[in-house]
Write a structure and sequence with these properties.
95 residues, mainly alpha, 5 helices, 0% strand
Length: 95
């Protein structure tokens, strides 16, 4: 997890935050879950593994933002959608 001061707070730390989170996701071998469109498997065993890894990436992204940003991304259903969220279109993200 990121230290509180490293979590996304708005435009002022977006670039640094994205770099830190990329490294954290890479370190957990789940960066592909936010940078590429992952084909959702049909096989039950593979689907369970996919859901587990996507949930891990989802949690890392969600834990990497300040509380005032959480409501704007928490309803998205995949880690990739959270990663790709257009934070600039949400004024509350840039206080």
């Amino acid at each position: 997890c990121l230290r509180d001061q490293d979590r996304l707070d708005g435009a002022s730390n977006f670039g640094v935050w994205k770099g830190r989170l990329s490294l954290l996701l890479e370190d957990n071998a789940i960066k592909d879950y936010v940078t590429t469109v992952v084909t959702i498997p049909i096989d039950a065993t593979q689907l369970a593994a996919y859901k587990k890894e996507d949930a891990k990436a989802w949690r890392i992204v969600l834990d990497g933002v300040k509380d005032h940003i959480v409501p704007h991304i928490s309803e998205l259903d995949t880690a990739k959608k959270m990663w790709d969220a257009n934070f600039e279109s949400v004024p509350e993200c840039y206080h």
